[in-house]
Task: structure prediction
Amino acid sequence: MTADDTDRISRALGRVEGLVQSLMDQWGRQEANASLLRQKNNDKLEQLERALDRLATDLQGVQQDVAELKNDVEPAIKTFEAEQNRKLLFNEDGAPSARTKAIWAHTPMGRFGEAKELVGAAIFLASESASSFVTGTDIRVDGGFLAQTI
Result:
């Protein structure tokens, strides 16, 4: 090995050492930045969690207030014929299916309700003079279906 070879190797090692040091410096800055970002994100996450807790508490109070004030018209889905359940309720020839016969047998009115039969309950609840002191009420429009026991 000549003196020139030794000199070239020495310079190459110096460059490698400089490159390694530069990479370590960069990695250290990136790690410090990542650590700072993690801390900022953790702080923001904690702030968000506290805000969500406050919101959940506030919403519980609102939900309780609304629950006390709402009124409902409840049509029993089984007692009203609709497009989505027609295939279950009637055979292809239009005759009532076994399911329909069971529902009718359980319903004191002995038939399905019609949409127009929901209107009276809705008008009652919408009328200030008729229902001004009615609150938190569910009016079941089901032909007596839920009043029967199976």
Summary: The chain has two domains: 1-69, 70-147. The helical segments are 3-69, 86-89, 98-106, 119-126, 128-131. Residues 106 and 145 are 6 Å apart (CA to CA).
